[in-house]
Input
Amino acid sequence: MPLLMSKGGVITAPVLQYLSVEDAWVLASFFIALAVHRLRLGVGKRILLFLLGCAVAAVLVNMFVKPPVLVIYDDFRISAYTEVEWLIMPPIPYAPTDYLRDLGSKGLEAPFETEGHVH
Output
């Protein structure tokens, strides 16, 4: 899925809609670490503030981040994402769970559960 794209003059980041709770927490912790690093406090106070911020972020992320249960990556290859002014794609174009592309039915079965997969 695109990291960043422009369609009709509107810039969006579709990948943010699909962040897992863990991904969102790590991202929030990174920005908390950057903010705490800029403060002129002692090392102990900065560490404590960082840990407190991460704990608060964990609670908020668990309350508000609700990623989709199923992501069919083939949907990102349709015209809604290909007919854009510009887009930035990740360096690795496939997700490790992108096994649904091998099935014509886009079923919910796990990889290698049935015969006939195409790689």
Q: What stands out?
A: Residues 75 and 104 are 13 Å apart (CA to CA). The mean pLDDT is 79. Helices lie at 21-38, 43-64, 79-82. Strands lie at 4-7, 10-12, 86-88.
